[in-house]
Write a structure and sequence with these properties.
The complex is a heterodimer. By secondary structure, chain A is α/β, with parallel strands linked by helices. Chain A is about 50% helix and about 15% strand. Chain A has an 8-stranded mixed sheet, sandwiched between helices. By secondary structure, chain B is an alpha/beta fold. In chain B, the strands form 2 sheets. An 8-stranded mixed sheet of chain B has the order 5-4-6-3-7-8-9-10, sandwiched between helices. The longest helix of chain B is centred in the N-terminal third of the chain and has 17 residues, at about 15-35. Classes of the chains: A alpha/beta, B alpha/beta. The interface between A and B is large, with 47 and 52 residues. The structure holds guanosine-5'-triphosphate (GTP) (2 copies) and magnesium ion (MG) (2 copies). One magnesium ion (MG) binds near residues 137 and 189 of chain B.
Chain lengths: ~300, ~300
Amino acid sequence: MVLAELGGRISRALQQMSNATLIDEKVLAECLNEISRALLQADVQFKMVMNMQNNIKKIVNLDDLAAGHNKRKIIQQAVFNELCNMLDPGKAAFVPKKGKPNVIMFVGLQGSGKTTTCTKYAYHYQKKGWKPALVCADTFRAGAFDQLKQNATKAKIPFYGSYTETDPVKIAQEGVDTFKKENCDLIIVDTSGRHKQEASLFEEMRQVAEVSNPDLVIFVMDSSIGQAAFDQAQAFKQSVAVGAVIVTKMDGHAKGGGALSAVAATKSPVIFIGTGEHMDEFEAFETKPFVSRLLGMGDWSGFMDK
Amino acid sequence: WFSSLVQSVAGKAALEKADLEPALKVLKDRLMTKNVAADIAEKLCDSVAASLLGKKQGSFTRISSTVQAAMEEALLRILTPKRSVDILRDVHQAKEQGRPYVIVFVGVNGVGKSTNLAKVAYWLVQHDVSVMMAACDTFRSGAVEQLRTHARRLQIPIFEKGYEKDPAMVAKEAIREAVRTQQDVVLVDTAGRMQDNEPLMRALSKLINLNEPDLVLFVGEALVGNDGVDQLTKFNQKLVDLSTTGSPRLIDGILLTKFDTIDDKVGAALSMVYVSGVPVMFVGCGQTYTDLKKLNVKSIVKSLLV
Ligand SMILES: Nc1nc2c(ncn2[C@@H]2O[C@H](COP(=O)(O)OP(=O)(O)OP(=O)(O)O)[C@@H](O)[C@H]2O)c(=O)[nH]1
Ligand SMILES: Nc1nc2c(ncn2[C@@H]2O[C@H](COP(=O)(O)OP(=O)(O)OP(=O)(O)O)[C@@H](O)[C@H]2O)c(=O)[nH]1
Ligand SMILES: [Mg+2]
Ligand SMILES: [Mg+2]
């Protein structure tokens, strides 16, 4: 994964600092600048990068006072902690419970990959013996129902939708009710793409959430998104109870730093990543092992158990 | 003695790198928060620095305003098209030659190719140009139905051959059909593809080589971060590398989408034009047919600098 590239650059920056015989202000500044550059090139929000830089400087300066400390170790620990904080919201996502009617609602910006990911998600659980079902509560996009229907048919997953009904709230309600009656244990509601600048679209999302009463709202985000990621993700979070993030299109070249921003904005963990257009190009994502792997290179290993 | 007296009153010594650095740092950070790709923000600042080094500084102007003015000039120069394409004029020219004018829409997944193709169709129809759509995304679920829906709503003909056909051949047949039925323009929709996906880039190159379109329009979303640079560079590079003709076709222009979702973070426009050297020909700013605009260079520059 390309995020790993970022880990490599950060490790190298720290390694370079370790090679310096004397760590002074200048060496520290250079190291932090290099780390910041790597994060900015990966599309992490500018403000987050600056905050991280300042936090590290503060910690390092404070510890300056205490004599006898190993400066290098303090810096490394500070960088590690800051990165962990970015990637790890500190709480796990809702885990669907087998045998119960779990309702999962997908939301996100236009074209981020919701509809594709809905099927991947359903297919992932179907393979494990679950009974998933798909509800197409996107009545806006041309061809939306056909898209979901063709995907669902390919995966042999039951679906609900309409060519004539224009109210997504109604479809969501009917779809969820129908599949509850049919004892499906994973009812997945796909919604239209939307953005924070259009209030009526967010209002519609709130209404769909109200009638579907989801156990989990998943925010789907394109890995190539730039500086707008944080604001958009935060707006979604403020409107519905986002509880998890899925980052799509990780098979591309993007380093996915927008995802870190989304984790920060929604305070929700990344649970899966999309790695292609096909149904099985989907991987579970676990923050802790990932951070460990990301930072578990070279000098990092000493901090793993803290 | 007179000239030396004048100099000491009117101007100070030539500008040096150290004088410029603080002001440039502020500008670079601002560009990055506005979603200009990190490398490009850096290169721009370097070239502004180079243009100012050694220049005499007027005593009454502050360095920061000198730097700001130089940056503004540089941005205007980059964003102002060197070569303008007048589609309507070219359409009429093609018509006089007795052939349809062909536009191919290309880009990565989910950026808005199909939707904005429909907007361009609407715009052409408004200008009394007859249009035909060619459904050459024969891969993604619902892609054909999506385009068909737009064609029906806009009451324009569509050429389609369903799924799993060779898109290059579908385009060929579509153009032949347009000649037969005397359509002025053929708009070719293509499947989204990642710039690193070799087989899919090869298929795109084939479509372009075989059909020699009049305009290759790259569709990119204003939301994209640093990856936008890579997308354009690699699409162009692949079109060169995989070309089977003597003179490879490159991207002729950019259609920038989702401009309504980014507030003042307009930097992707700059990044895309900077790396490709081609103009933004249309800006998509919403999800209805009328949401298609021309780029306002002055307002972009203003947004980037405040
Ligand atoms: N390469 C790649 N493409 C993906 C991935 N996930 C989705 N896509 C593609 O991205 C495009 C958009 O996906 P959709 O699922 O239609 O996105 P959406 O969020 O439902 O779009 P709207 O409903 O219009 O908001 C399609 O071409 C998908 O095939 C992924 O992980 N990798
Ligand atoms: N807000 C906004 N949404 C847009 C704009 N242009 C397109 N969209 C939305 O973006 C989503 C994806 O658009 P498509 O036209 O399907 O994108 P595509 O590039 O053809 O996608 P693939 O063919 O799957 O690669 C849809 O929900 C569109 O309504 C725009 O200018 N503004
Ligand atoms: Mg969708
Ligand atoms: Mg399309």
